[in-house]
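Hi everyone,

Forwarding the result from last night's run.
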Amino acid sequence: MASGSENDLSCPACHEIYKDPVLLTCSHSFCKVCVETWWRGKLTQECPVCKAVSGQKNPPRNLALKNLCEAFLLERDQRGSEDLCSLHSEKLKLFCLDHQQPVCVVCRDSKTHTGHRFSPVNEAAQDHREELKKTLKPLQDKLKNPNTHTYKNGKRKVFIKGSLITKVTTKKKKKNFRSIQNQVFKQNDE
């Protein structure tokens, strides 16, 4: 439900907070887009509320109303960032460990959360931050060196220009090279 201030700052055409408000000669204000839409296809530019004919095709911007609307929206956004319970309009000070969600003091005492474990929101947030850091660490390491991967079995595999080299394959290649080298020497000796 809209508050009194919000009703005072709402366009009578779209019922939203004014966006780029203009002032008609009859002193009614509208969003610029709303009045232009209302006037589209009409022979005369009349006020959508009182039907008074406006002598201006481009009504002046209502800067005072625009500033009030911007201040109201800014204040409303800041109030919204306080994290209030949608059921009780109380601050969310606790975190239900069983439901993994923030709750207010009234919710804690409700039937929904009977027998549940709680912690302060700040502590729960810190715990979640630490858990996220642990989860992100391997991903960040992978980003730092995208050519090296360590797998669960402890083997480290390195991708170089599309070929996979491990310690095992490196040893096999050296052994094969020595074998070929020995065969070449034997053939040269014969």
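The radius of gyration is 35 Å.

Cheers,
N.
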